Fold:
Amino acid sequence: MIPSLHTAGLYIHLPFCLQKCVYCDFCSYTGLEAHYTAYIKALLAEAETRAEAWSNRSFDTVYIGGGTPTVLPHDLLIELWQGLERRLPIVSREDREITIEANPGTVDTLFLASLHEAGIQRVSIGVQSLNDHELALLGRIHRADQARRAFQMARAAGFENMSLDLMFGLPGQQLEDWQRSLQQALTLAPEHLSLYCLTVEPETPLAAQIASKGMPAPDDDLAAEMYEWAQDLLCAAGYRHYEISNWARLTAEDERPDLMVPALACRHNLKYWRYESYLGLGVAAHSFDGRRRWANLEDVSEYIARCGRNQDTTAFCEELSPEQQLGEAMMLGLRLIAGVSRRDIEARFGVNLMQVYGAEIERLVQQGLLESDAHDRIRLTRRGRLLGNRVFAEFLR
Ligand code: SF4
Structure:
């Protein structure tokens, strides 16, 4: 839980997609192909502008996300990656984790091989479902067989650390549909799995379809059943659950009893849950330096124009009080299955956790949502994982 003062994560936002999925409220745009080259140039200009403020850290994780990063031509992605390496203190190859998100339907083996050769070690594939009718319902651009092929192509390209994203709790989805999807995903033997329960975000086409009764609303109880079933299946299949929505395949390294998270956990995302620093570059990217957090503006043309003039692209910035920092560290840390350590909190924030949050913790323990071991750790119970938002709300004052 205690972050290193000298390392940080780097997040790169590439906000371009071929088609908008019906549930998506991320900052992503279609039809902006003409801006790709200018956007990468702008991103590198932002990296240069922000480099000085981050010069006392080194980046040991990089996550290139979106959007769909792999809609960009591979030479542009490589130009981006090499440009970042020249401008920012990214640690050497053996000590870092570099991930790129890829969507089936936008990659082939040569494309992936060139990324791997350029030094990107990990690929996270947005599969979402291995049932064609669900992919169509979600407005995804790919079919299930393309998702399987994308995975195999990434393996053939040399990626040894791969993650798959799947979604459950979809409108009309039956338990058996979900079971089939997840079981098929396991036949691919990914190193890592992220399983997300669909959230119907306001102002999305999906919300409108549900409101007009064109589609059934997701069934929360059934989604809980799907999640419970997935936890059992993945445990039996040799995966360790380390965050509410994330699992990593166990390796020989995981036999060490002192490891709080599995060796194949996503190191970049761990920085968010451990409340460590990260710099986000690109439109809508968020950053946190341990004291302040900020977010970039969302408009691509405006972002390109400002970077071209060496102007600030920050749209929002907030200085966090020590109380806010503690609350956020608790809320994020409790997402980890290993929970938070009272000793670490004390060392980092100089407070006794039980004196600040004793009443809340006790109430949540009585409700069966949190458990606390005799000497140090506090974590969500299995029931608490289903009702995480109720728990986290107690730590935000
Ligand atoms: S691919 Fe991802 S970012 Fe793009 S529209 Fe779909 S969900 Fe949104």
